[in-house]
Structures
1.
Amino acid sequence: MFRPTPGRLVYLLIGLVVGLAALFVYSSVAGFPSFLPFVRPSTTSTIKAPTEFSGTSLSRALLANQTVTKNAVVLRVNTVEEYADGFSLTYSLLSGQPGDAAPVLQPDRFDVTDDKGGIYHLSAPESSGTVGAGLSTGYLTFTPALSADARAITVSVPHLVTVAGIAGASTSKILDGPWEVQVPLR
């Protein structure tokens, strides 16, 4: 049988401290494990509005094809897809004049509102974009779901950021907008 020597007691205490520290870190991140006797399951549940887009239930898809031009830059909203917990849209950003080297532009943000005053928030984890000389495209997702009473949404880009341009050219790093596109929903 093992005898409690001072060395074994030190290792036992170190293991106990490391285990408690690991349990503290785990419970801070993911909550207490259910096998612990002092953890009681919650009897009340709260329903929260989704804060991130899941895209699990497509209601309908609309071909938007709405454009606006300002400062020789065209913003086009291509499609809008309605889901149970939000909506997505695809966009294209065209810049540059024929025969000239086009700058690489990127929208600084998208603001989306509906005609009933609803405000929609970008859900970044499910959104993506590609920037290139003269053409930038993207897929953006927003929450909450579109209002059933809304007849149109307004997509606004306040500013465009010049990511890359012509070497030595004295171009502005920020193009002021706004570029506003109204997309009919019904």
2.
Amino acid sequence: MDKQTYNKIKSMTKSHDDLMQEHLKDDEFQYAWLRQCIEDYINDGDFTVFYRAIERVVKARTTVSQLARDLNMNRGNLSEILNGKIEPKMQTAFKILNGLGYEITLTKKASA
């Protein structure tokens, strides 16, 4: 394939990241995606994926700096949490989710 054809095809496609950011503008998509990421986190214990998901939602809505101000948190600490460099306490995770307009509820599993 020549470079001109490649560039034409590339200009007509979207990257996964661009497509994801487009979808994350929708509140219902954000909710469903975060819910799935929380379930994955509970099952596999990998907090990095969960907090990267929160970071993407934050960036779709506002900025990390603005959220930190809204939550009265240190911007650097919030950024490290969202980048998976430090694992926050549950209280901090709840605070971030609450700042995004979500709450955590506890439900009993159905009997098998």
3.
Amino acid sequence: MELTNFEVKQLNVFTDTLLVKGMSTEAKIKLVELKMHLRNSANDITEFEKTTADSIRPANVESLSDEDKEKLDKEYSDIIVPYYNKVNNIDFELMSKEDFGKLVDCNDIEK
């Protein structure tokens, strides 16, 4: 499945909260495999965010004017937004409709 880095990051957080009650063992395994792929990609994304922030943060960041802080935020955004929009391929197998229904039923998916 093709997901942007931003979608991977959000889906990784979302899948951390899922309950798997009532699902088949096969579906649980598929969900765990998806989570492993998401976590690996999300860790890469987090590392890129940190490296990017560290690379543009001046030593005197606390003493910057509000205008300079806005420029710094824009510089960060100019780097990170294209990275968030980059497509990431995540390999996973779909679960059955029955298992997906059970996943939806035992979780508050309305958020």
